[in-house]
């Protein structure tokens, strides 16, 4: 007579090889199986390991106007693994009803998102744990970047204030320049100087090698400077960049800093990679000619400048382009890889790696909510 099948797997396999690799929503459902699983998958060491196994995905978002109910924001990590259906590649991981003002994703860091309404009101949320809280102390500041401060383990925001440019009567006596705000500290933003940091508000930052990086336009035709903010010392410095047209952005790929730029008509994309970060040496890796005429005939009108993003996924260059109501994925040969009919979708230069790791600052914030409105 054959031995009966083993009814359960050892914890080393079921918990540390299978559950630890599940997406957050699937893992939360598995917690209902038994108390042992719930206890094991709630421990901090497990949650940190689980976060390490999650995919780092390019971040998109969609906005839908529901009339009197206001704008609804969909958080959409773009997952282009082979074999996934198109609908799954643009699947929302969270939906928030944020009222009547225009919502925007402003930053992403360790699974946390910073959102804004009308570029004045700021909110922090974790789409995986469905935690959300307003950041009332930074109303009307300009966000320059978000980062973990490694010496303290805190999450901080780099901000900019210009008394004449923003709201001259809102905070009389506030000095122009950059500020640092610690999420959950209860203290107002701390002045750090650098009055010229306003130039950074026109570029998106990326976190690389422990520093925030911005590519700066020096004049209308060329740009060859990158500004860095060291997130440990919280100080600024500069590094060289390749001379490119002004439409450019930074990204990370395979542990290297990358830069994409495109011409005024957005028909040609140049992709540069830093060959040696310390010596500030760059090399042109790809020049991509887009078949704009053919794609326009098939998918509709192409609007230049803000409807194209270059990022990376799993060591590959990923280019996403908006044509009319279509989102297109194009490879480095300029060939169409995939198309998605999604009218109201917007790009970011950010990436999202979901996390269930708890953050102690959330309950300390006024207006904190979990698993309730504005999540819908």
Automatic annotation (TrEMBL):
<dbReference type="InterPro" id="IPR013187">
    <property type="entry name" value="F-box-assoc_dom_typ3"/>
</dbReference>
<dbReference type="InterPro" id="IPR050233">
    <property type="entry name" value="A_thaliana_F-box"/>
</dbReference>
<dbReference type="Pfam" id="PF08268">
    <property type="entry name" value="FBA_3"/>
</dbReference>
<dbReference type="InterPro" id="IPR001810">
    <property type="entry name" value="F-box_dom"/>
</dbReference>
<dbReference type="InterPro" id="IPR017451">
    <property type="entry name" value="F-box-assoc_interact_dom"/>
</dbReference>
<protein>
    <recommendedName>
        <fullName>F-box domain-containing protein</fullName>
    </recommendedName>
</protein>
<dbReference type="Pfam" id="PF12937">
    <property type="entry name" value="F-box-like"/>
</dbReference>
<dbReference type="InterPro" id="IPR036047">
    <property type="entry name" value="F-box-like_dom_sf"/>
</dbReference>
<feature type="domain" description="F-box">
    <location>
        <begin position="9"/>
        <end position="50"/>
    </location>
</feature>
């Amino acid at each position: 007579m054959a031995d009966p099948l083993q009814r359960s797997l050892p914890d080393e396999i079921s918990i540390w090889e299978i559950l630890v690799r599940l997406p957050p929503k699937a893992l939360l459902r598995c917690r209902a199986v038994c108390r042992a699983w719930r206890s094991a998958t709630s421990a901090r060491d497990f949650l940190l390991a689980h976060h390490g196994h999650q995919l780092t995905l390019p971040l998109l978002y969609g906005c839908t106007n529901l009339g009197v109910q206001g704008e609804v924001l969909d958080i959409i990590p773009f997952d282009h693994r082979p074999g996934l259906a198109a609908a799954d590649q643009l699947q929302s991981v969270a939906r928030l009803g944020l009222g009547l003002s225009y919502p925007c994703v402003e930053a992403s860091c360790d699974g946390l998102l910073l959102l804004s309404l009308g570029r004045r009101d700021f909110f922090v949320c974790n789409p995986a744990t469905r935690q959300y809280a307003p950041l009332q102390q930074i109303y009307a500041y300009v966000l320059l970047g978000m980062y973990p401060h490694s010496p303290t383990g805190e999450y901080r925001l780099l901000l900019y204030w210009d008394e004449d440019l923003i709201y001259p009567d809102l905070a009389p006596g506030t000095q122009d320049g950059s500020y640092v705000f610690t999420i959950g500290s209860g203290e107002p933003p701390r002045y750090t100087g650098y009055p010229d940091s306003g130039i950074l508000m026109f570029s998106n930052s990326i976190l690389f090698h422990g520093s925030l990086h911005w590519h700066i336009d020096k004049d209308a035709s060329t740009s060859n400077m990158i500004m860095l903010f060291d997130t440990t010392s919280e100080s600024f410095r500069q590094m060289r960049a390749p001379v490119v047209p002004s439409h450019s952005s930074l990204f990370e790929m395979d542990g290297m800093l990358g830069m994409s730029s495109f011409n005024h008509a957005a028909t040609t994309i140049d992709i540069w990679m830093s060959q040696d970060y310390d010596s500030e040496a760059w090399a042109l890796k790809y020049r991509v000619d887009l078949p704009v005429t053919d794609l326009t005939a098939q998918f509709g009108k192409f609007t230049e400048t803000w409807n194209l993003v270059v990022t990376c996924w799993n060591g590959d260059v990923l280019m996403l382009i908006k044509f009319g109501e279509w989102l297109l994925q194009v490879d480095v040969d300029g060939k169409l890889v995939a198309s998605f009919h999604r009218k109201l979708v917007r790009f970011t230069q950010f990436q999202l790696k979901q996390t269930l790791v708890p953050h102690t600052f959330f309950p300390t914030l006024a207006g904190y909510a979990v698993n309730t409105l504005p999540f819908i």
